[in-house]
Amino acid sequence: MKESTFDRLFVYFNHLFLFLLLVSVLYPLIYVTSASISDPVAVNAGRMWLFPKEVTWEGYQRVFRDAEIWIGYKNTILYTLLGTIVNLLLTIPCAYALARKDFAGRNAITLFIVFTMFFNGGLIPTFLLVKSLHMVDTVWALVLPQAAAVMNIIVSRTFFQMTVPRELEEAAEIDGCSNLRMFVKVVLPISGPIIAVMALFYGVMHWNQYFNAMIYLKDRDIFPLQLFLREILVSSEMSAAMQTGVSDLEAMEAQARIAEIVKYSVMIVSALPLLVVYPFLQRFFVKGVLIGSLKG
Amino acid sequence: MNQLATEASLAMSMENRKRRRRGRLRKNWHLYAFVLPTVLYFLVFHYFPAYGLVIAFKNYKVSEGIWGSAWTGFEHFERFFDSYYFWDLIRNTMGINIYQLALFPIPVIVALAFNELSNGWYKRFLQTVTYAPHFISTVVICGMIISFLNPSSGIVNQIIAGFGGEPISFLTEPGWFKTIFVVSGEWQRFGWGAILYLAALAGVDPQLHEAAKIDGATRLQRIRNVNIPSIMPTIVIMFILNMGDFMTVGFEKIYLLQNELNLKTSDVIQTYVYRSGLLQAQYSFSAAIGLFNSLINLFMLVMANRLAKRFSQTSLW
Predict the structure, then answer these.
(1) Rounded to whole angstroms, how far apart are CA atoms B153 and A72?
(2) What residue intervals traverse the membrane (chain A) (predicted)?
(3) Chain A residues near residue B244 by CB distance under 8 angstroms
(4) Distance of residue A100 Cα from the nearest chain B Cα, in angstroms
């Protein structure tokens, strides 16, 4: 069937609309990348608008010279790993049990968990609890209050309901296989996709979060990367290593000049691990959202 | 004879059932062990703080504990309702949410537009790029906003100056705050938010489209009469969930963009709870405000669900 003029016009406008969307997302990302390696004078004067101008690595050199960035990086990696492992331990076995039709009490337990999504104590009582458990200024303040997320348990439960066939469980039962053995030998080997999705969801959450660290941690040695980023990007504070050192007027001007390039470089440095792996892992993330949509 | 046999088999099946139930409990012992840590987690870190909300009706002192502190009734709530900033907080919180709600259709429109593309590398590339902002951390997004909107060196003001305009100090101007917050949020969200609707669109029966084509429907008509009705249940569910967060704004982000000069429009209930509760240690008073906020959310969720049930036969419960 031949397309009508109206339809062709529609397709044309649709392409235009999507192209504008693409530009609106891509442009800020390219700008940050280019600004991180351009001479700050060119950037501040507006001469750099898309591709790098007068390439310099000064921003990155200053970021990498800063000891605190490395401390933050190390801490963030540690918290992300530990946090994600705890998340998986609390999410995957629980979701599997809740997916089993012959598990008495599954509906009551699911309701018990889902209810917290709609009503909970909020900031103040949670803060007082963490304080009274003596977790302030320890790793546990970042790990335990967020040991599991309701949505992720529901998504994993849906996955197990869809993928583990009832016959497999029955067969294992007849063979006298215990539930624990069955979980380890039968269920885990086929749950690679959901474990990957959950590890990614939780991992990104830990990598990116700053708020809990801000309210629970006081000791700079255990700050995650995002807290140092906040100082540089939002409060515009720079550590001594990034500054020029001398404090006469000329030096202060030089420092103001350098402040912006350091900001752009640090944005890239913090997002780099995710940016590198993201295109390859994208389908896993999408899969997670899709499983979640099957049974909300 | 016959009756005897039935009785015997009945007795046997009852015996069987009992044994099976006992067996099931023993057999499922491991499954209970699977859920136990998770249940404990929710008990300690979600239900216990919910119980901790009783301090909203007390004068909480750390030394006396939650139960030992003296009751005050609704004193904290009254103080909050009578305070001069009460209406500012309500206006800002609701204003930002209504603004966001007005942009609720954007991911739906994006999904409908994506869906018109034929599968191929361009569609995949578009999706990969538009999902990416979802993964940028709040701190970095705020850093980008602050740098881009800088009155002298920011790209936005350079563009304005390029067209001969006067530079605008966006972040210290109260009138701009809501737009900055909501638009940057939408930039981060629209691609990722479209995934759900794209999945729903993939499930539309192609025969419906074929039939509509034979009837001479244009693409736009097919979107309106086939695609949109098909994904309506998904739209309704997402809308209800949105309403459940009516008084919750991404306050981690608001907090980072807030400053003395834009406080008039940027202070929302949650940032106020943070300041008065954690920075000034007025625990009971802030817990009362937090409780007030959660109750409105719960109320909006229930109302949205009820309306959805009446008008579209789709609901959360």
Answers:
(1) 28
(2) 9-30, 77-99, 111-133, 186-205, 261-281
(3) 118
(4) 9
Query: Which pTM does this prediction carry?
Result: 0.87
Using the 3D structure, point to which of B46, B71, B96 is the last residue of a domain.
B71
Task: Please answer yes or no on whether A296 and B316 come within 8 Å at the CB atom.
Answer: yes
Residues B245 and B283 reside in one and the same domain: yes
Judge whether B306 is closer than 8 Å to chain A, CB to CB: no
Tell me the mean pLDDT in the region B178-182: 95
Distances (CA, A) of A160 to A169, A179, A191, A198, B230: 12, 15, 8, 13, 27
Q: Which residues of B97-112 are buried (b: 16+ CB within 10 A; e: fewer)?
A: bebbeeeeeebbebbb
In a domain, B317, yes or no: no
Structural domain boundaries enclosing A159: 66-237
Asked if B208 and B222 sit in the same domain, the reply is yes
Q: Chain B, 113-172: which have a CB under 8 Å from a chain A CB?
A: 113-114, 116-117, 126-133, 135-140, 142-144, 146-148, 150, 152-153, 155, 158, 161-162
Q: Tens digits of per-residue pLDDT, A16-64?
A: 999 999 999 999 999 999 999 998 888 888 888 888 988 889 889 999 9
Q: How many domains are there within chain A?
A: 1
Phi/psi of residue B71, nearest 5 degrees: -70, 145
Distance of CA B73 to the CA centre of its chain: 31
Is there a contact between B267 and B88 (Cβ–Cβ < 8 Å)?
Answer: yes
Calculate how close chain B gets to A96, using CA atoms only, in Å: 8
Q: CATH number of the domain at A173, please.
A: 1.10.3720.10
Neighbours of B185 (CB within 10 A): 18
Q: Assign B205 to helix, strand or coil.
A: coil
Element (H, E) at B270: helix B269-274
- Locate B180 and state its tokens: 């900055």
